[in-house]
From TrEMBL, chain A:
One of its GO terms (molecular function) is oxidoreductase activity, acting on NAD(P)H. This is NADH-quinone oxidoreductase subunit C. Residues 48-179 form the NADH:ubiquinone oxidoreductase 30kDa subunit domain. SUPFAM superfamilies: Nqo5-like (SSF143243).
UniProtKB/TrEMBL annotation, chain B:
One of its GO terms (molecular function) is NAD binding. Pfam families: Complex1_49kDa (PF00346). It comes from the Archaea. This is NADH-quinone oxidoreductase subunit D.
Length: 180, 384
């Protein structure tokens, strides 16, 4: 701890760093889809919350008009108090050099069952595999870890967990680690 | 021969039977014990010598890092988060520290930023040398196993001087690095990096210009530029297919903007190009280290003091860095607690795994090691 001599914590204000491109990207989405909620616009990061019925249309628009071409990460977040599970797609672009810094988070929510039966859960979301082929394995991981069934995914099988896993999906909040 | 006794028995799990109902197609398990598979299983269906179907089955070293992170404070998460890839532990902690700094609003001291860059480039060399050794031995080139393993020690010694540990350094902390370098580190580092670079050049004579290697890897497993983008591959796989995308250049973090280096891109997209990119990257790492040693402030603080159990706000961040295997992103969801509410780790190995069935289908079985290991795949990292 001897080398830690500065105790000051500096809060940075990044509202000045938001570029015109950030604003124009979020504006074009909100102009085209009225039900879409722009959760935040930070420097190089935009988050868009959509309803699950609309996600394929919004994702196709993001791919075709805004030129985001691949998924960096697909992560699920469990919200037991809302009885919902959220899936966040982080999308990036290789083909458009002006977007190389940008990550667009596309989030949607599915209703969550209190007592999921393994492999037979009604927590269903449409799969984005036809729009972004790169989400294929990420969605499989999300399926086994949070029990979100992706409708339209041709390969909804387990990936990392053992074939005979019989407990609830482990990244749900009601799955507890022993002793913790 | 359960399958022959009851060919319509759907209860049999895929890959558990040696022969399928179709006499012509044989199902072949590669791994998880097979030395050529790493800690994973690849279920291959082969027709004679040709692979007609490939189904990767990772998960044998899944450790639940993401779940474990939800139970630990932001600082106590550090040692276990680097376990998925101990040879590249600085790079896997990098996005985590950047993300936590953004959550807590921390500003990193200037000297710490340079030390981070030096540590992460040294780590990239350690990882790449390890990978190169494995790539060499699976192509039957045992000298290429011994040389990188030996030269890797030089870099490990440097990291030991810097951090106190040979692997699993736990060197990065939110707000800086754990400790300053010992006296004379700059001179020793410069000398060893120069020698290391000289040794790297000799790899061309024995390995990269070797006609046997070229005949085994040229034109095998070609990934076109369009497919590389569509499949969302990253790192050396992407750059070997002609896409110029390196996060150190495209979204510079810490002091990468001020350092002098270039991105290596090859257009061929075959196994040879994919195996060459990490080696070329090590030269750039040496260049970055030399430049950073020169530009680094000679003294100053290396970390800022944190409050005990710092709490993040009610927000989320996504930060990424370029690791030895490509983009490594961390999505941290915070809900005002000292622990992350959810931590999603998106690793290059997992993202490149999707290219494996694409490349192996239609390839000859004998080319499997050349294609598989050229993907720069690290099973433990992919499983997390």
């Amino acid at each position: 701890m001897s080398s830690a001599d500065s105790t000051e914590i500096v809060k940075t204000d990044d509202s000045a760093l938001i570029s015109d491109l950030d604003k124009s990207l979020s504006d074009s989405i909100s102009k085209k889809f009225s039900n879409v909620e722009i959760a935040y616009v930070k420097p190089n990061r935009i988050r868009v919350n959509v309803k699950k019925e609309e996600i394929i249309d919004v994702a196709s628009f993001i791919r075709d008009e805004l030129h985001f071409d691949h998924a960096e990460s697909v992560g699920g977040v469990d919200y037991p108090e809302d009885k919902q599970i959220e899936v966040v797609y982080h999308l990036g672009s290789y083909t458009d050099p002006s977007l190389s810094k940008h990550i667009l988070a596309l989030a949607t929510r599915a209703t969550r069952e209190d007592n999921p039966r393994p492999g037979n859960d009604s927590t269903i979301l449409p799969s984005l595999r036809d729009v972004f082929p790169s989400v294929s394995f990420h969605e499989r991981e999300c399926f086994e870890m949070l029990g979100v069934y992706f409708d339209g995914h041709p390969d909804n099988r387990r990936l990392l967990l053992p074939e005979d896993w019989a407990d609830i999906p482990p990244l749900r909040k009601d799955f507890r680690i022993k002793g913790r | 021969m359960t399958s022959q006794a009851n060919p319509k028995n759907k209860e049999i799990l895929p890959g558990l039977q040696l022969e399928t109902v179709d006499d012509k197609i044989m199902t072949l398990n590669v791994g998880p014990q097979h030395p050529g598979s790493g800690h994973m299983r690849i279920i291959l269906k082969i027709d004679g010598d040709y692979i007609v179907h490939c189904d990767p089955d990772p998960g044998y070293v899944h450790r639940g890092e993401e779940k474990m992170a939800e139970y630990r404070n932001y600082i106590t998460n550090i040692p276990h988060l680097e376990r998925p890839v101990i040879h590249d532990s600085c790079n896997i902690l990098y996005p985590y520290c950047l993300g936590v700094e953004e959550l807590l609003g921390l500003e990193v001291p200037e000297r710490a930023k340079y030390l981070r860059v030096i540590a992460s480039e040294l780590n990239r060399c350690v990882y790449t040398q390890y990978w190169l050794a494995i790539y060499g031995i699976f192509l039957g080139h045992s000298t290429m196993f011994m040389w990188p393993m030996g030269d890797r020690e030089l870099v490990i010694d440097l990291l030991e001087k810097m951090t106190g540990a040979r692997v699993t350094h736990s060197y990065f902390v939110p707000g800086g690095v754990r400790n300053d370098t010992p006296p004379n580190f700059e001179d020793v580092c410069l000398r060893q990096v120069n020698y290391f670079e000289k040794r790297l050049k000799e790899y061309a004579d024995i390995f990269y210009d070797n006609p046997i290697l070229i005949s085994r890897t040229k034109d095998t497993g070609i990934l076109s530029r369009e497919d590389a983008i569509k499949l969302g591959t990253t790192g050396s796989v992407l750059r070997a297919s002609g896409v110029d995308f390196d996060i150190r250049k495209k979204e510079p973090y810490d002091v990468y903007e001020e350092l002098d280096f270039q991105t290596n891109v090859l257009k061929e997209g075959d196994s040879y190009a994919r195996s060459k990119i990490p080696w070329l990257d090590m030269f750039e790492s040496c260049r970055i280290i030399r430049d950073a040693l020169q530009k680094m402030p000679k003294s100053g603080s290396v970390r800022i003091k944190l409050k005990p159990n710092p709490k993040g706000g009610d927000t989320e961040v996504y930060r990424r860095v370029e690791s030895g295997r490509g983009s490594l992103g961390m999505h941290i969801v915070s809900r005002g607690k000292p622990q992350p509410y959810r931590l999603k780790i998106s690793v290059g190995s997992f993202r490149n795994l999707i290219a494996m069935p694409h490349l192996l289908t239609g390839e000859m079985l004998g080319n499997m090691p050349a294609v598989y290991w050229s993907l720069n795949y690290w099973p433990v990292e992919a499983d997390r």
